[in-house]
Design goal:
InterPro entries: Aminotrans_V_dom, PyrdxlP-dep_Trfase, PyrdxlP-dep_Trfase_major. This protein is of the alpha/beta class. Helix content is about 40%, strand content about 10%. The radius of gyration is 24 Å and the shape is globular.
């Protein structure tokens, strides 16, 4: 982030006040330009309207080069790198992350590959609680119905097999307010506490993937505390660089977010925050190395020979985002405002609606697709997504919403658009025109052959 011009105090070295203003005040460095942004992302396929930053993120050329320098440093002298560079570099990245998320201690921050790994670490600990009889068989773990697919599978693999009772919080879609989420969450906790059970863990998304919505995590964590939930884990794969992240305000025991989605890191890097508390058990990385028992942060910093460069470029990423007006906060604000504008434009063009109010989205938003496209299954969403990619050069995820009883000609297909700094208005116009062309041609998903 560019600094403001230096304030000149107009004093001489001996303390006397000057009577003139310097003729050449120091100027602020210029913010990054549109052409420089285009150059940073020139490796993106120019034939694709890439309005799906949410899935895999994006890495600018500046960071790719920084990563390459770390890789070459390792390859030049691996022993020196291991003994003298790696631990120091990862600690520097952890310190930056600690400040970004407003954690109290760098010891609370571990760096792992991705949010899926972080979920495995937390859920593995919960599974040990059941297998070691710290928890009673049938005690509950609560998660949102919108939970990411791999996290649901991890809950199945760790919690269900260990004897835990898993409760999904059903959420409506489209959504009109946070109250709908809070009401259903309270009902799920009541169910979890029935028959004398304890709710041992609540798994809460911060920004759900599909359908996409910002969850009121602060309110849900507060409810968990009031209702005696043992531990709260926030799966925030999309959050850092996308919405506000503050560990003191959120108050969760565990919190994870990827840095390769919205914070410009190369894949793969995420942080796992573990609140320092006597009530929080010691966590362990599922890959056991010779660092086992030295604390999660140290265990995670060495899980065997591999490429650690994504974990080492965080200082360079901070330099990159600070070239933008307002730094990462400015980027988040502009991404949000633009994705809402583009979402409203698409909804108006197609005669549909947004999947939630603008205040319930960050840098991604859901828009209803015309009902006449005939999206009637998850398979249809994949077929249509492939068709848009291959015929129209548009990359966008699509969500199937099963119609409720009695609904006729309802909107059953929604797209999720993202906005990141490299996106242009033409990307969204290209998508708009592709859907309009399909509608005008009388296209339906039934006309597409399955792969």
């Amino acid at each position: 982030m560019a600094s403001s011009p230096n304030h000149h105090h107009n004093h001489t070295p001996n303390g006397d006040r000057k009577t003139h203003v310097p003729k050449k005040p120091k100027l602020s460095p210029a913010f990054i330009t549109a052409s420089e942004i285009a150059s940073e992302f020139s490796h993106h396929d120019p034939n694709i309207a890439r309005i799906n930053n949410g899935s895999f993120g994006s890495c600018p050329a500046f960071i790719i080069e920084a990563q390459r320098q770390w890789q070459l440093k390792y390859l030049a002298q691996p022993d020196h790198f291991y003994f003298n560079e790696l631990t120091k570099g990862i600690h520097q990245s952890r310190t930056i992350i600690k400040d970004l998320i407003n954690a109290d201690h760098v010891e609370e921050v571990s760096i792992v590959d991705n949010a899926t790994t972080a979920a495995a670490i937390v859920l593995q600990q919960a599974a040990w609680g059941f297998s070691e009889s710290k928890f009673d068989k049938g005690d509950a773990v609560v998660m949102l119905h919108y939970a990411y697919g791999s996290v649901k599978k991890s809950i199945e693999a760790y919690i269900s097999r260990a004897g835990g009772y898993v409760i999904e919080v059903p959420l409506p879609f489209p959504l009109t307010s946070n109250d709908e989420i809070i009401t259903e969450f309270k009902k799920a906790l009541e169910k979890g506490k029935a028959n004398g059970r304890r709710v041992r863990l609540a798994v809460i998304d911060h920004i759900t993937s599909m359908p996409c919505v910002v969850i009121p995590v602060r309110e849900l964590v507060k409810i968990c505390r009031e209702e005696g939930v043992d531990q709260v884990f926030v799966d925030a794969a999309h959050s850092i660089g996308c919405t506000d992240v503050d560990m003191k305000l959120i108050g969760a025991d565990y919190y994870t977010s990827n840095l390769h989605k919205w914070f410009f890191c190369p894949p793969a890097i995420a942080f796992l925050y573990c609140r320092k508390s006597p009530k929080c058990p010691e966590l362990h990385h599922p890959v056991v190395s010779h660092e086992y028992g030295n604390g999660l942060a140290i265990e995670s910093a060495w899980i065997g020979t591999r490429d650690y460069s994504p974990q080492l470029v965080v200082p360079s990423v901070l330099d990159f985002v600070n070239r933008f007006e307002g730094g990462i906060e400015g980027i988040k604000k502009r991404n949000h405002e633009t994705v809402v504008e583009m979402g409203n434009m698409l909804a108006k063009a197609w005669g549909t609606h947004l999947g939630c109010p603008p205040e319930m989205c960050a840098s991604m938003i859901m828009i209803g697709l015309p009902a006449c496209l005939g999206i009637s299954s998850e398979k249809d969403t994949q077929k249509l997504r492939t068709h848009l990619r291959e015929k129209f050069g548009v990359e966008v995820p699509i969500y199937f919403r099963a119609p409720k009883n009695g609904e006729v000609e309802s909107i059953t297909g929604y797209c999720r658009i993202s906005h990141q700094v490299y996106n242009k208005v033409d990307d969204y116009y290209k998508f708009r025109d592709a859907i309009n062309q399909l509608v005008s041609e009388g296209f339906t998903c039934a006309s597409l052959l399955s792969n």
